[in-house]
Amino acid sequence: MTTLRLILGDQLNPEHSWFAAADADTVYVLMEICQETDYVLHHAQKIIAIFAAMRDFARQLGEAGHRVHYLAIADPANRQALPANLDALIAQYSASAFEYQAPDEWRLDRQLTDYAKQLAIPGRMVDSEHFYSTRGEAAQLFVERKQWLMEHFYRQMRIRHGVLMASPGKPLGGQWNFDHDNRKPWLGLPREPADWRSAHDHSALWQSIRQAGVASFGEPSAERFCWPLNRAEALQQLDDFIAEALPHFGDFQDALTYRAWRLFHSLLSFALNTKMLNPREVIARAVVAYQSGHVPLAAAEGFIRQILGWREYVRGVYWANMPGYEAQNCFAHQRPLPAWFWTGETKMRCLAHAIGQSLEHAYAHHIQRLMVIGNFALLAGLNPAAVHGWYLGVYIDAFEWVELPNTVGMSQFADGGQLATKPYVSSAAYIDRMSDYCKGCHYDKKARLGERACPFNALYWDFFARNSERLAANPRLGMVYRQLGKISPAALAAAQGRADQVRAGIENL
Ligand code: FAD
Ligand code: SF4
Asked: Among 257, 349, 442, which is best to mutate for testing ligand 2, by the most ligand atoms less than 8 A from CB?
């Protein structure tokens, strides 16, 4: 009576109750398949990191006495798709039951539900034992409210889970949110902490991935590789973050700089999203760091809000809107991505840096993703589905449940404002205030017209002018529309002419 248990590549949680005791009647299955490498074009580091972490997980399970069947990408028995491999393994082990952990992506959830339904043996889904909230919890909270608001969800989560609370209903420090303290540009000090670096050699794995014909882009180099491959390494990365970066996380959370690639961000999203780390333990560490006086409340709260608030909230948005969310396009933007999204070769210094480091590290921090790359994509009218495909492929932490709402909702406002209360766009003024990008840029941050005018400036006013019917009544945009009203019709027409020119010449910006 053998049970076959499937472990997906983002379910590498050795603390799951499945693994509490070894059982000779259970076979754990992990598989490297083209179905998962090829649904979008992925960054090389993402494929390497996930496969290497899966291999390490399988090794550790075996060492702990569990029975494991691992299908490597180059294994001749590998049929490269979940159902075909599962059929073969169920037959090989004469399995009498099939079990899997709840997938986080709608596409896999659908596929495995359908697969389990048609089996002649019982098929069962179990909880992944990872998130604070259930798939439908956010939707239940907002069922009688017109507008979804992350802040409302976050406060409920704080109360419900007793995180940073002075007493029931009262937040520590008398404030729920210290966002206003968290908006400093970074002027070079304190120094960016040293990167956590992986010591593994991935060259043999990379070769077998290439031999299997898996297409990819971005830098596969081991020197750049700073993604943990197992829980022990992820815990080390967490320790380093708490010790060195968390004290400054709040202050420089929104900063942008040409001189550093991660600033004081944690780089923990890969370990969290592959479930090597549990969000509860990460939050508990931040709370202890505050209680012991190691970090100020604003830093701990700012960091915890990202995980207990945003991370859980976007997951709720995803499950409330799938399928269909991936096709949202409220502005009907259709422009394809310019070729420099794949090379970083543009004269716009902010984009060259943010895209360049994405290709080099498979990582950009939140403000680069939102206020540089996403900002440009929305202002330029790039197709949100194409933007979604790029973000899903390029980032080490990109899994659809978290990437899609962030890209299509928060960054492209393509859902018409379900996730974000206003479009996150800016002219050069914001980028200049928060960064050192504009000094030394080919373009003039102050100019709106002319060949050397920063493309963001004309695109920004053109965006609000084009979309006034949809956006002018938004209370969060009152000031923008008052400013727009002060621009003379002739000046606005000239700016819109420059915006047309920018879009027409987008490949050569
Ligand atoms: P830190 O800044 O150190 O934040 C700590 C943790 O908070 C992160 O590890 C992450 O788990 C969580 N977090 C922070 N912001 C968010 C958010 N908006 N949504 C969900 N979780 C959040 N995050 C992903 O995990 N995968 C993605 O594919 C992804 N795509 C994004 C696309 C766009 C357009 C934007 C604007 C944001 C995206 N994010 C995504 C959210 C965020 O940018 C990343 O989680 C973060 O940059 C990861 O780096 P870090 O671990 O250093 O984060
Ligand atoms: Fe970016 Fe414009 Fe500043 Fe250049 S001037 S770095 S394009 S915002």
From this structure: 349
| 12, 232 contact by CB (below 8 A) | no
The verdict on the CB of residue 380 being under 6 Å from ligand 2 is no
**Token digits of residue 329:** 């396009």
Report pLDDT digits (tens) over 305-320: 999 999 999 999 999 9
What is residue 180's predicted lDDT score, i.e. its pLDDT?
A: 75
Q: What is this structure's pTM?
A: 0.97
| 308 C-beta closer than 6 A to ligand 1 | no
Please tell me the distance between residue 230's alpha carbon and the centre of ligand 2 in angstroms.
39
Ligand 2 centroid from CA 353, angstroms: 11
DSSP β-bridge partners for residue 70: 30
pLDDT tens, 393-439? Answer: 999 999 999 999 999 999 999 999 999 999 999 999 999 999 999 99
Are 357 and 295 members of one domain? no
pLDDT for position 463: 98
- Give yes or no for a contact between 304 and 286, defined as CB atoms under 8 angstroms apart: yes
Q: Is the shortest distance between the CB of 370 and ligand 1 below 6 Å?
A: yes
Question: Is the shortest distance between the CB of 105 and ligand 1 below 6 Å?
Answer: no
Report if residue 190 sits inside a domain. yes
Please give the sequence-ordered ranges of beta strands (E in DSSP) within 427-475, or none if there are none. Answer: none
CATH at residue 291: 1.25.40.80
Tell me the three state secondary structure of residue 96.
strand
299 and 167 share one domain: yes
Number of domains in the chain: 3
Tokens of 487: 């621009």
pLDDT tens sequence across 457-493: 999 999 999 999 999 999 999 999 999 999 999 999 9
Q: C-alpha distances in angstroms, 497 versus 66, 163, 425, 427, 450?
A: 66, 51, 19, 16, 10
* Alpha carbon nearest to ligand 2 atom 8, residue: 428
Q: Is the pLDDT of residue 380 over 80?
A: yes
Ligand nearest to the CA of 286: 1
Q: Which of 340, 347, 350 maximizes ligand 2 atoms within 8 Å of its Cβ, making it the mutation to test the pocket?
A: 350
Alpha carbon 338 to chain centroid distance? 22
Query: What domain range includes position 299?
Result: 137-197+229-321
